[in-house]
Design goal:
The protein is of the alpha+beta class. The chain has one domain. It starts with a strand and ends with a strand.
């Protein structure tokens, strides 16, 4: 787990809310405090959709809504002349990206068996984005199904996020 401080908030918010930069994520939850506090539960309610819609909507295989589906609503709540008092977004890397991260990054000749078993213990790669009224911070984390001693997936996720931010031109410092 690492903490990251965003150094150019306006640029980051544009990339978060108005571009496809973060479309590789699913939203678990969001809390946005402006004149009121808004809570968004990102869990997909499959009962809402017809059978045809479920078959047509690729995201219905996920537990949570894709960020690209929710970000326009978040943008509407945040935009305006005043900045929010605070917000928090809990994002999960989409499963296929997580599988790629774990398989590409962990297979080395001396740990193949151990790492493959460990990768199966990973539930989610989580990115929490918080704004406290003064600065935006990101916190990385891995959710495991069971206790593991080796934290290689955590290190891979931390490295991935740093590279991701660099590739997207997002300015940051490690905390």
């Amino acid at each position: 787990m690492i903490g990251i401080q965003i150094t150019e908030s306006k640029d980051f918010m544009g990339k978060l809310l108005k571009s496809d930069c973060f479309h590789i994520f699913l939203l678990e939850e969001a809390t946005i405090t402006t004149a009121s506090t808004y809570h968004i539960d990102g869990r997909i309610n499959k009962e809402f959709f017809s059978t045809e819609e479920l078959n047509d909507l690729s995201f219905c295989d996920f537990a949570f809504m894709p960020w690209e589906q929710i970000s326009p609503f978040c943008f509407e709540l945040i935009k305006g002349k005043r900045t929010p008092l605070n917000f928090k977004f809990v994002l999960h890397l989409i499963p296929e990206q997580l599988e790629t991260l774990l398989s590409d990054g962990t297979l080395s000749s001396n740990t193949i068996g151990q790492t493959a078993a460990q990768a199966m213990c990973v539930n989610d790669a989580v990115l929490t984005i918080k704004y406290d009224g003064t600065m935006i911070t990101l916190i990385t984390g891995i959710s495991y199904q069971t206790f593991v001693l080796d934290k290689t997936p955590d290190k891979l996720w931390d490295t991935y996020i740093s590279k991701f931010l660099d590739q997207k031109g997002i300015k940051f410092t490690l905390l």
